[in-house]
Amino acid sequence: MSPRPAPLAPAPSRVETCLSLGLFVLALAFHAWGMSVGWESKSLPGVEYRQAQTALSAYWIKQENNFSLAYPTPVLGKPWSAPMEFPLYQWSVVLAGKATGWGLTKAGRAVSMACFYLTLPAIFLLLGRWRVAPGRRGLVLALLASCPFYIFYARAFLIETMALMFAVWFWVAFERAVKTRRAGWLALAAVAGTGAGLVKVTTFLLYLLPAGAWALARLWRGRRDGRWRVDLGWMAAALAPAFAATLWWVGQADAIKALNGLADFLNSVHMRTFNFGNNELRLSPALWGMKWRIVRDELTWLPFVAACVPVLWVAGRHRWRAVAFCATVFVAPLAVFPILYAYHDYYYVANTVFLMLAIGLVLVGVSETPRWRWLGPGLAALLVAGQAFYYVEHYYPTQAAILSGGNGLTLSLRRLTAPDEVLAIAGQDWNAMTPYYAQRRALMLRGDSEDDPARIERALAALRDETIGALLIAGKPWQEDSRLVESVRTRGLSARPLFVWRDTAIFLRAEREPAAIREMQEGRLPELDWAPGVEPPPAPLAGRWVETDSLSPVRRARLFASMRPMPVRFFTSFEPAREAIANVLSFSAHPRTRLVFRLPRGAHVLRMQVVFNPAAYNPPPGQDATDGVAIALRALDAADRATTLGERLIDPVRNTADRGPVMLAIPFRLAQDGEVELDIGAGPRGRDTRDWIWIRGLLAFE
Q: Which residues pair with 631 in a beta bridge?
């Protein structure tokens, strides 16, 4: 569709231009602030599984220094390459990380952000096709910069903004090359179109719609004077490199994927059916309901979008064709790609530009109408503020969280497997989150593969030169995959799971299980539980400091249920125990025993009862008796320096009153919240022979 000349309208005044520019600068500053939110976080909010797939490729390109076209995406076994898009984005991320010293997540965000910002000059130029005065273009750019959807996704670890940048620049350069006959614009159109086709062909196809509509209209108008032949030549010259490169890459990618028996569902024939769907899917009420939810909840501040219709009718009617054109292109991919736009909100990075253009052209139309010219900037400011508020309300809480990335499963897999080992995973489709956050290559068995034993065997056979470090079976009882379990057992894994994480059973190599059990007992495997039927011996606690929270709830209660509060950490020279002594549960405090408690500031009294085993002070003839036990209570400061609050020597040999239960009460005061240590040590001779003392019953800080 060719843009129609707008009716005569006053050029923007200096004040209007300043207001437009100022609003854009404010919106751009808000967008830049949004880019900084959660910058240190290593998680990937927003379609995390798709970001993880892109990030996984970049991670292994960096690890292997592998800049080949058969770049690694190690989720479907060997060979590790199953390329979708041309890896220009991934290469850029790796190179940006090397140049800046940033980690992969920051580098990925930076490349996406740069591509988004480089799109804005193209939008500025594009507005010229509708004869929007430069002084009013800031209104449209402000809407784009403040769009909450673009604040959230402009820094995602995705190819979307790079594809958008290339596609918009292609559209601008294509029209200008044909109109001006300038080689520079032609070269830019060829390069940008090639980039768009290689990076994301669906985005390129979307921008071929408005470019193609303009081209057809121009060819139709030029049929009378023969100008259409020259125009057609320039159009072909601009498009040919992009089409050739895209077709070449599709063939190249298919050839690489054909080498992997599990990647056949990703070849261009299968993807064409998935991408374009059919008429039944295009008309599906369920899919349109899903698309409406994304448009309603994710893209912008919807009440103002609805308000644009009456505003257009009243004040900006002369712009209705341009507005309708942009709105049509915004909706078109929802019908052309019925599945993609129903299930993947990040696809809207490509077409939300047209929604912002439609709204922006309404505001431009209002500003061009003499009677309403000051209403346009005011409405634009209101929409920018509304979009900013919607971002803060809807996206900010998700984006602001500073997380390490992954979960307890992926953190544990890093400890349980070696970096060069492979994860075999069933029940997670080909979701790359587990391999990416675990930083491991994977053989992920999709549903159709799990039901094909021969296919599984071929995939496992391809790993004959690799070591499978763990098998994960998710979403169902692992016994239902007994054939898979047996197949990996012959490759060195245990025949039954050692751990579970949520609904995922975790099988490890048999030789690794003793070390893994120790890791679990020492609390180093977050969120993992023992698999049903696994009853490992409790971890030895003697001879080391132990954080009480690292113990299982059952073990913690078994040892310290009679202490108020429980200690936060402890040290015992011998294995701690709690037994019934004279029918009273008592805690073994054989020297040296050190218990650290956290208490609030104020006055306290430690009350406890201790008792010696009579054999300690009545030994058999010829054997030494205890020389007593020194009990001290000390306050600890931030540097673990100790101040004695009270002490007592319990010596039943020399003090008969210390035979039998001895009640202790130690009053003290803490100036601030802090820790106190109850230290039970050897007697005056410094030896712990027969120092069999117990804390009898309740120990309490009152």
A: 648, 680
With a CB cutoff of 8 Å and minimum separation 6, the contacts of 242 are 170, 190, 193, 194, 196, 197, 204
Report if residue 614 sits inside a domain: yes
- The answer to whether residue 158 scores a pLDDT higher than 90 is yes
CA distances from 81 to 425, 526, 573 (A): 17, 32, 54
CATH of the domain at 462: 3.40.50
**Token pair 């060829």 in the structure block, residue:** 190
For the range 449-455, what are the long-range contacts, defined as Cβ-Cβ under 8 Å and sequence gap of 24 or more?
A: 449/262, 450/426, 450/481, 450/484, 453/483, 455/261, 455/262
Q: Residue 161, class by beta-carbon neighbours within 10 Å (0-12 exposed, 13-18 middle, 19+ buried)?
A: buried
**For the segment 677-692, what is each residue's pLDDT rounded down to a tens digit?**
999 999 998 888 888 8
Place of tokens 């290469």: 91
3-state secondary structure of 531: coil
Neighbouring-strand partners of residue 509: 493
Verify that 145 and 225 share a domain, yes or no.
yes
Say if residues 3 and 131 touch (Cβ distance below 8 Å).
yes
26, part of any domain: no
Q: What is the CATH number of the domain that holds 586?
A: 2.60.120.1060
Cβ count near 655 (within 10 Å) = 13
Whether residue 353 is found in the same domain as residue 476: no
Per DSSP, the residues of 431-467 read: -THHHHHHT-EEEEE-HHHHT-HHHHHHHHHTTTTS-
The count of other CB atoms within 10 Å of the CB of residue 112 is 28
Contact 472, 424 (CB under 8 A): yes
Q: How far apart are CA 354 and CA 143, in angstroms?
A: 11
| CA distances to 34, 169, 315, 495 from 142, in Å | 14, 19, 20, 60
For residue 550, count CB atoms less than 10 angstroms from its CB and return exposed for 0-12, middle for 13-18, buried for 19 or more.
Answer: middle
Same domain, 338 and 421: no
Are residue 555 and residue 506 in the same domain, yes or no? Answer: no
Instruction: Report the DSSP beta bridge partners of residue 569.
Output: 547, 596
pLDDT range class, residue 312, cuts 50, 70, 90: low
- The residues that bridge with 639 in the sheet, in sequence order, are none
Would you call 544 exposed, middle or buried from its count of C-beta atoms within 10 A (0-12, 13-18, 19+)? exposed
Q: How many domains does the chain have?
A: 3
Query: In one letter, which amino acid is 372?
Result: W
Q: Is residue 32 part of a domain?
A: no
| Locus of tokens 């005065």 | 133
As a whole number of angstroms, the distance between CA 524 and CA 674 comes to: 26
Nearest to 288 by CA among 336, 352, 328, 342: 342
Residue 359 · residue 383 · CB < 8 Å: yes
Do residues 168 and 124 both lie within one domain? yes
Q: Are residues 550 and 414 in the same domain?
A: no
Q: What is the pTM of this model?
A: 0.80
Q: Please count the other Cβ atoms lying within 10 Å of the Cβ belonging to residue 692.
A: 18
**H helix intervals, 42-200:** 48-64, 88-100, 104-126, 134-146, 148-153, 160-180, 183-199
Of 530, 565, 598, which marks where a domain is finished? 530
Query: What pLDDT does residue 10 have?
Result: 67
Q: Which residue from 66, 45, 169 is spatially nearest to 115, judged by alpha carbons?
A: 169
The domain of 440 spans: 408-530
pLDDT reported for residue 583 = 82
289 shares a domain with 177:
yes
Residues 53, 156, single domain; the answer is yes
Element at 249 (helix H, strand E):
helix 227-257
User: Shortest CA distance to 436 belongs to which of 426, 446, 423, 418?
Assistant: 423
Q: In 3D, which of 187, 171, 67, 193 has the Cα closest to residue 125? A: 171
Q: What is the pLDDT of residues 585-606, one digit of tens each?
A: 999 999 999 999 999 999 999 9
Which of 354, 382, 400 marks a domain boundary?
Answer: 400
Question: Phi/psi at 491 (nearest 5 deg)?
Answer: -105, 20
